[in-house]
Write a structure and sequence with these properties.
Number of strands: 8
Distance between the termini: 78 Å
CATH topology of the domain at 30-164 and 240-315: Rossmann fold
Largest sheet: 8 strands, mixed
Radius of gyration: 20 Å
Order of helices and strands: HEEEHHEHEHEHHHHHHEHEHH
Structural class: alpha/beta
Strand order of the largest sheet: 1-2-4-3-5-6-7-8
Strand content: 5-15%
CATH superfamily of the domain at 30-164 and 240-315: Alpha/Beta hydrolase fold, catalytic domain
């Protein structure tokens, strides 16, 4: 009996230390990488939005939606500043990531996120923006175009998943999304994982290119290791296949200029599996194939990405020049 009590006492101490370390890690991340923009309240949820560029009538609105485990800083590192001379750029933290609040505890579907972000854009005065989505954010952008086509003028997709796939989910997402194992495992990751582990993941995502100088420190690895963020990422990832499978049949109804940019060396979201079929499913969709480029064209092929945005603006009848 004494051994049992001792074991329980040691377990309680370990849990208390783990939760303290997790909270401390999160506090350091928020202190070192605070919100870059403003916090909106949309449908009762806090949404972090960064607005850059000219506040004038002839500057087209451009919404940028980050990928699965990113935040606004993925775009504010270099792409958004490069666009801000000619576009009013609006960057959102997706629900549960960065400094935006979770919509719910089931991960928030791509359609729920699209609805929320479209209302957030309207709150900022962007009635019909160009919407750009990278990676998972591209699936949210597609859902936006399907669900609320009257609230955007064009669609730009970077390395975006759009079709059902066969690849196994993998043990990490199976565990962190599990209803019992996930809530037990995630505090351990937040408490004891080093930010350098996220930097290693960043290197893998950029391959075969290298991350630009200063990217890892700018984007804020600690924000990704926040408990709420880790759980959100896991749930959104595990739900994505079924959500895309349901969304896919609606692609032919998209009646907007669509520009897709995809690297031939992208092993995270394969060009042949996703971008090529999508050009057949959406009338007038155009694909820019980037030879030898991996999953992060917004950083390693920035001129080509900006050119795609400009093409989308022109096709939508929006001014894209100074």
């Amino acid at each position: 009996m004494k051994l049992v009590l001792l074991a329980l006492a040691l377990l309680a101490i370990f849990v208390a230390i783990t939760l303290w370390k997790a909270r401390a890690h999160e506090a350091r991340a928020v202190a070192s990488h605070p919100p870059e923009g403003r916090i909106l309240t949309v449908d009762g949820h806090r949404v972090h939005a960064v607005v850059m560029g000219p506040d004038r009538a002839d500057a087209p609105d451009l919404v940028l939606i980050h990928g699965l485990s990113g935040n606004t800083r993925d775009f504010t590192h270099s792409l958004a500043p490069a666009l801000a001379a000619r576009y009013r750029v609006i960057i959102f933290d997706r629900p549960g990531l960065g400094h935006s609040e979770r919509i719910n505890r089931t991960g928030a579907t791509i359609t729920q996120q699209a609805d929320l972000l479209s209302r957030a854009a309207q709150q900022l005065g962007a009635e019909r923006p160009i919407v750009l989505g990278h990676s998972y954010g591209g699936a949210v952008a597609l859902a936006w175009a399907v669900r609320r086509p009257e609230t955007l003028s064009a669609l730009v997709l970077l390395s975006a998943p759009s079709q059902p796939w066969q690849r196994d989910l993998g043990w990490y997402y199976r565990l962190t999304s599990h209803p019992v194992v996930g809530p037990l495992l995630i505090p351990l990751i937040t408490a004891y994982a080093q930010d350098s582990r996220v930097s290693d993941t960043i290197d893998a995502i950029f391959a075969p290119q290298d991350p630009p100088p200063g990217y890892a420190s700018h984007v804020g690895a600690g924000l990704t290791l926040h408990r709420e963020a880790l759980r959100t990422i896991a749930l959104q990832r595990v739900n994505l296949l079924s959500e895309i499978t349901a969304l896919q049949r609606h692609y032919p109804q998209i009646d907007l200029p669509v520009e897709s940019v995809h690297g031939t060396a992208d092993t995270t979201v394969g060009l042949d599996i996703h971008a090529l079929p999508l050009t057949e499913q959406i009338d007038g969709a155009r694909l820019a194939r980037l030879d030898g480029i991996g999953h992060m064209p917004q950083h390693v092929a920035q001129p080509e990405v900006i050119a795609a945005i400009d093409r989308a603006a022109t096709r939508a009848g929006l001014p894209s020049k100074e």
